[in-house]
Every structure is written in C-alpha cells, then in structure tokens.
Amino acid sequence: MTLRIHIQDGAPPYEQVRAQISEQARSGALPVGHRLPTVRGLAESLGLAANTVAKAYRALEADGVIETRGRNGTFVAAAGSAAQQEAANAARAYAERAHRLGLERDAALAAVHDALRAVYGD
User: Fold this and answer.
1) Which residue among 4, 7, 41, 64 sits deepest, i.e. has the most Cβ atoms within 10 Å of its Cβ?
2) CB-hemisphere CA count at 13 Å for 49?
3) How far apart (Å, rounded) are the C-alpha atoms in residues 53 and 43?
4) Averaged pLDDT, 62-73
5) Which domain holds residue 67?
C-alpha cells in the first residue's frame, strides 16, 4: 500500500488517506482481505497524528471499504461501495424469494426489468 500526503493540497490529510485507500481497494491494488497497517503504524509512517488516521479508517468502515475484526486487525472488505453491497444483498434476497415462489428465471428477470423501468423510466 502506497499513500502520499500532500500538505499543500487543499484536502485534509484524513480525506487524502480515505480517498487513496478507497481508490486502491476499488482498483484492486489492495485486494479483498488485505490486512491494513494499524492506525498507529500508518500514522507514524505518514507523519500524521493517530487520530487523523483513525478518522479516515472510521469513514472507510462506514463506507464499507474496510472492516475491523477486533484484535485481528483491519482488512479490505468486499469490493464495492456500501450502496453496491446493499443492492447486491437486495438482489440476492429477491432472487431467492422468486425461486421459492416458483418463478422461472425469465419471469423473475422480467419483473426486475419492469420495476427498473417504472423507477428509472425508459
């Protein structure tokens, strides 16, 4: 993981840390399951206060980019934003429900297409 903080940049240091880790996780440069440095370790390596890195980690966790596993550490979470993960969970729940109702795949997909047209327009 390579992070660079640019003091002359208008963005606060915690936001620079958050944005760079988020981008690296999204691009795959930081793969799912990659263990991140401790807050103190990263803060020391970047020359930042521990609270600055902790704030970035809290924002990343709220966004679903990373997950903290207690004493085991902090890891890159499943790819995608929190909204994408929530949508994937909803889609899976719908697919399971449609299957339990006995709908064929084409009928289930048609129902989704109809719902999307109703919401997004066509």
Assistant:
1) 64
2) 6
3) 6
4) 90
5) 13-76
